[in-house]
């Protein structure tokens, strides 16, 4: 809004220009709603004049009522955003219509709301992680695989006390994920594992990373493996069900 300058020492109150008349009026609080409305109306009228002039091939002189035209890049970005939002809306509505599910049956990392929230990643020691082994139902259930710690509380039926995979939580039992030995291979010692077996461990790690309800909460400070210690003996007790 255009203001009429004045000298503070003069004691003359600050004044504004009324766009509808071009006259100066006192810049009082009570006048502001009226002046804002009049300036908005003046801008709308200016837009009509500019559009008419363009249609006639004329160019109007600049005015303080002119709004800055967005750059081609800004217009492209805004159009792309609107198109993307429209495509997402159509996809969600299509899922509801055809499958009664806006996500079309997808359940993975990107459908987990925790994925989009910043979380404070923690560093766990073996002594601390064992406190989250599911024995205390008031605490989350955590497991570590390849040194990454995941919250698997949503799968308490699988990992809670007395469940089939209870031995895997509260520790890094990466070797057991490969061998299926849930009693003697509860260690992160991967010595002697073949490339195929290590690839299987990578698949397990991806399973937790991309899970719909499990989520990463930190990393584990794993103790070093004594190279002089014996490699855990082979075990063939391997259940086929995924935790």
TrEMBL record:
| Disordered as annotated region, ranges | 1-69
* Keywords, ordered alphabetically: Membrane, Transmembrane, Transmembrane helix
Species of the source:
Malassezia obtusa
Annotated Cytochrome b5 heme-binding domain ranges read: 124-221
* GO cellular component, as recorded: endomembrane system; membrane
Q: Name one Pfam family in it.
A: Cyt-b5
Name of this protein = Cytochrome b5 heme-binding domain-containing protein
Q: Does the keyword Transmembrane feature in the UniProt annotation?
A: yes
- Note the SMART domains from the entry: Cyt-b5
Residues annotated as transmembrane: 73-98
The cross-references to InterPro entries, in alphabetical order and at most eight, read: Cyt_B5-like_heme/steroid-bd, Cyt_B5-like_heme/steroid_sf, MAPR/NEUFC/NENF-like
UniProt feature, compositional bias: Basic and acidic residues: 42-57
User: Has UniProt tagged this entry with the keyword Membrane?
Assistant: yes
**Similarity section:** Belongs to the cytochrome b5 family. MAPR subfamily.
């Amino acid at each position: 809004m255009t203001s009429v300058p004045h000298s503070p020492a003069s004691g003359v109150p600050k004044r504004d220009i009324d766009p509808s008349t071009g006259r100066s009026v006192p810049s009082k609080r009570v006048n502001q709603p009226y002046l804002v409305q009049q300036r908005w109306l003046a801008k709308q009228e200016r837009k009509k004049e500019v559009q008419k002039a363009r249609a006639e091939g004329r160019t109007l002189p600049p005015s303080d009522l002119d709004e800055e035209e967005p750059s081609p890049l800004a217009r492209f970005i805004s159009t792309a955003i609107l198109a993307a939002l429209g495509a997402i809306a159509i996809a969600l509505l299509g899922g509801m219509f055809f499958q009664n599910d806006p996500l079309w049956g997808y359940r993975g990392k990107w459908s987990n709301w925790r994925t989009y929230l910043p979380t404070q990643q923690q560093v766990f020691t073996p002594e601390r992680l064992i406190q989250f082994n599911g024995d205390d139902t008031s605490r989350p259930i955590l497991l570590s695989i390849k040194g990454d710690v995941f919250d698997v509380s949503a799968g308490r039926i699988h990992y809670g006390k007395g469940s089939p995979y209870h031995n895997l939580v509260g520790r890094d039992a990466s070797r057991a994920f490969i061998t299926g030995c849930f009693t003697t291979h509860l260690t992160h010692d991967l010595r002697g594992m073949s490339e195929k077996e290590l690839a299987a461990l990578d698949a397990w790690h991806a399973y937790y990373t991309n899970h719909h309800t499990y989520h990463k909460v930190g990393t584990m400070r794993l103790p070093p493996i004594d190279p002089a210690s014996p490699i855990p003996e082979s075990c063939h007790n391997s259940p086929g069900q995924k935790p």
